[in-house]
Amino acid sequence: MTKEFLQIQFRKELINGMLYLPDSNKPAPLILHLNGMPGFEPEEEETRLGNFFTSKNYAYFAFDYVGVRQSTGLFEYIYSQENINLVLSKLVHHPRIDPSRIGLLGESFGGAMGLVHTSRDDRIRCLAIRSPVYDTEEIPKMKVFDGLVQMWRANKQMRFPKINLKRSFLFQSRHYNPMKQAPYLKCPVRIITGDRDEIVPVEKIEKLYKQIPDKIDKEIKIVPGANHKFSKTKDFEIMKNYFLQFYETYL
Predict the structure, then answer these.
(1) What pLDDT, on the 0 to 100 scale, is given for residue 144?
(2) 24 torsion bin: left (phi>0), alpha (psi -120 to 50), beta (else)
(3) Do 216 and 206 meet the contact criterion of CB atoms below 8 Å apart?
(4) Fewest C-beta atoms under 10 Å: which of 31, 205, 219, 238?
């Protein structure tokens, strides 16, 4: 495996990301990883999923949205969606990436963003999501919303503009809501979640799953005992191999 640190300019800001490449010099299919809020640092993905997928001859890219950790600027949901589009538009021109074989892997909030983006982007051949936020308009209504924002600010993982975040997030999420966009999906989809998810109840994810058209190849896998982050080793291994089998079919 080889690694490339990439900085991609978004307006006046810089998006930081790590590209993990297999040893083969042939153009490889790309798995684009989409973080939660804030999820894992791009460098952490080397041991978490990067080594695994590059060993199977996939390229793997992880990045931080604008306003998250070492990426510059301030985080806004609407801009994070633009970040995804820009990142893909840059990566498809990389000489070691096959632009005709692109899959997304979204986790938690990144699952919501991945679904919304895929519904509007024909470059995506397949979508795999873990424990997705099912309805982004529900996030600012949660009792813990203010506490989460304070925590993210305190540990300097995320930076936000000085505005009414609840009002702003609700307005922006109406245009980028997975519950509204799921019916427009056209590519194969896999969803995995746990029945012990302490953040997103499994019945809510099943509700999202039902919004995806039956005419496409879709499947949901519910792992007994798995929590939101799939933090148990055996659950994480189930997730990795479930997604690998999916990518081997469609990429």
Answers:
(1) 65
(2) beta
(3) no
(4) 219
What is the Cα–Cα distance from 216 to 200, expressed in whole angstroms? 24
Q: Which residues of the chain have pLDDT under 50?
A: none
pTM: 0.94
- Angle between helical axes of 77-91 and 165-175 (0-180°, round to 10): 50
Query: How far apart are alpha carbons 202 and 9 in whole angstroms?
Result: 37
CA angle 54, 39, 150 (to 5 degrees): 165
Q: Where are the alpha helices (DSSP H) in the chain?
A: 45, 51-54, 77-91, 109-118, 145-154, 165-175, 178-181, 202-211, 233-250
The pLDDT assigned to 137 comes to 85
Give the strand pairing for 2-10 and 13-21.
antiparallel
Predicted local distance difference test score (pLDDT) of residue 210: 97
- Is residue 83 within 8 A of residue 35, CB to CB? The reply is no
Structural domains of the chain, count: 1
Alpha-helical runs (H) found in 7-60: 45, 51-54
Q: What's the CATH number where 60 sits? A: 3.40.50.1820
Going by their DSSP bridges, the two strands 126-130 and 97-107 should be labelled as parallel
Query: Within 10 Å of residue 220's Cβ, how many Cβ atoms?
Result: 17
Provide CB contacts within 8 A for 19, sequence distance 6+: 3, 4, 5, 6, 59, 60, 61, 91, 94
Cα 19 → chain centroid: 15
**Cα–Cα distance measured from residue 81 to residue 67, given in angstroms and rounded to the nearest whole number:** 13
Q: Which of 238, 192, 184 is nearest to 219 (CA)?
A: 192
